[in-house]
Amino acid sequence: MSFYPRFISIEGIDGAGKSTHIAALTERLAAGGAKVLNTREPGGTELAERLRELVLHSGMDGLTEALLVFAGRRDHLQRVIEPALAAGQTVLCDRFTDATFAYQGAGRGMDLQVLATLEQWVQQGPRGLLRQPDLTIWFDLPPATAAQRRAAAREADRFEQQDLDFFERVRAGYAARAAAAPARFARIDASGTVDEVAAQLRAVMEARGC
Length: 210
Known about the structure:
This protein is α/β, with parallel strands linked by helices. The protein has 8 helices and 5 strands. Helix 3 (62-86) runs antiparallel to helix 4 (97-107) and helix 4 (97-107) crosses helix 7.
């Protein structure tokens, strides 16, 4: 029997096409009767959105970056995610903690044990359990392809300006997180057309009873 996921995170390097498919996923969940809350990280609350601007556009080292991201995540969990889940809503979040391990951990070279400690402190959910998504959909894409897509779509922020080696490390960071939590992760090959990627996404959701 499939477990219906109520907290879903969407992950992938910049340019992987997450935004395109989040809208379709929202429609699918709503059509199935779910009350869907769309949110994002960094962000999701007034405080976290202000921290997002600092993280994306101000120079800082990896530890400062991680501390700001986790501070925003704590506020996001307390003010938005936990209340929504308690009210029976389905939360669809554009990035969550896996992004921190991929970007600040693998990408910036932050000590993963430090990130794991912050994760434990910040994400204590009801009954002391670590709050993680029920399902994480990882849009996996070669960094060179993602760079081409980004260049055609928008002006780059300070993360998107990083070189291909940085994004190769980030991709490897996502792969490591997926390998450590295979029941939670669903990898999607994001290198295909929009329709091909959408078909993979439908298959993932059908397998989860959605």
